[in-house]
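WARN retry 2 of 3 for item q-0093 after timeout on previous attempt; input resubmitted unchanged.
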Amino acid sequence: MDRQRPLIAAVAGVAAIALIAACSSSKNNNPPSTGGGTGGGGSSASSSGGGGGPSATANIVNPGFTQKGGIVSILSDANYEHLDPCNNYVTNSGEFGRLIYRALTFIKDTPGEKPSIQPDLAEDTGTPSDGGKVWTFKIRKGLKFEDGTPITAKDIKYGIERTFDPSLCVDGATYMADTLINSNNYQGPYKDPNKDLTSVQTPDEYTMVFHFQGPQPDAAWMMSLFYTVPVPKAKDTKQNYDFHPVASGPYKISKYVPDKSISLVRNPNWSAASDPNRPALPDGFNETFGIDLPTISQRLIADQGPDQNAVTLENSGALQNGDLPKIRQASVKARFVNGPGPCIDYEWMNETKITDPDVRKAIAMAINRQAIQTIYGGDLFGSVYDSVIPPGIEGVNVAGLGLKADGDPAGAKALLAGKTVPTLHYGVSSTSVKQKTVATQIQNDLKQAGINVVIDQIPGDSYYKTIRSDKAPDFGRAGWCFDWPTSASIVPPILGPDAAGKTWSSNNFSKYFDPSVSKQIKALASSTQSPTEIGKQLNDITNQVLTSNWPLLPTIASLDPQMVGSNVQNAGASPIFSEIDLNTIGVKH
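OK item q-0093 returned
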């Protein structure tokens, strides 16, 4: 899977952590709206495309395997954008990165289980004080980098400091820079080496104290992101760190030829006793880049020779719509897994351009979401859904939008009676075939409602930059994948304000802003109430905003279908990364 950890590329600056939690867009043949792909959110669908299809419920291929050894093969389309932890915010490189390095905490995302936060480099999940504004973490003793040097609190702090450099760490998660106190305008270790990030204190080699601008109830989850990966200052090669981040996890890079291949071998200085989260069963991983998606799918289904040890991290397992008949075959179905992930796709409507809520509602009414689901591949890939909060999140209660899943152009036309709607411009990523197909469907739907739509192609590498800007089109497609499973990591970025609370956040593509509602969202993002209570309130706000203001239309709660080779064991779809969980798999050999 290759979506960034906001079904969008970069995260907005906010004062409270929950205002920026997310996942992001695709770089391959899938719409940025689908995380750069589809996958996530959960579904009520029970089968894929009819009777006898694979179950949409999370399951595991060959569970209970504990044997160490063997090499896993990973088949991939494109090279990773980043492996430097400060820029690693894409789901495929994120899952791969967790083999190489460790963070303060770890989201346990065992397929089929409810995700939980666990200590990783830290001894526990942190101790709050000062009303949740200060968090203290104790670091495990005896941890080492791949070269045998000790890992200390200062190495973790240095990794965090790098994320403050706006010229180096431009694609990663920004929670630290957005939420920590920064009274001296610290901008990383390179611009002014004499400055210190004073809000992160290391009173000794094994203690870290974080001082936030406000309460951070989700701080333990926040520390699982890669900005808390330790980086040895002496080995920091800046931009070249992408090619060999120093390992703190169970594997290290043995060879990396960008755009061709990368190989991991065991890190001899990793200690299994200090890492309860990674069983590290295989002896290594060999990944090959440059294989087109249909070929990956064909090879995984065929299961021949070395491909019996193979998996892929491509969106939806690189599976194609035409693969369903083959997946139903018993020998293939036994190697197929599917399950919910963190992503919801939606159509956003630019409120600075489409200013009439009746027009926005009419657009939502007219769109045939069942047709969009079919374009995605049917029930195998996800289901029509009425919220931006995925199923399974505490407090979620999808009240429904009162819309027909197959659209109602006639009703939309009646709603607009007497109103003149100018020609609207719908933005698509120029590199996404699927997004263009969805756009054409929407264009036809709205034509039936009397609304003319022009499809504008936006360069794929600047899609999200464009839709955030004042040059954004009238509407378009996006999506959101949470970084951790709380409503406070979902609603504030999509519908909430910026850090100052005076306008919309940068991931609020609808540019929806209501001072009163934004104030409520901002307060809940840093509330110390229980996650369930916060979730209920954010859920109610979301339902109210969507059905009265219509800033966006949720479309698909995505699933994550995946295929593995017959030798691959313990294989399941991660509910956080929406792909095969590399940390739990083994290989029969």
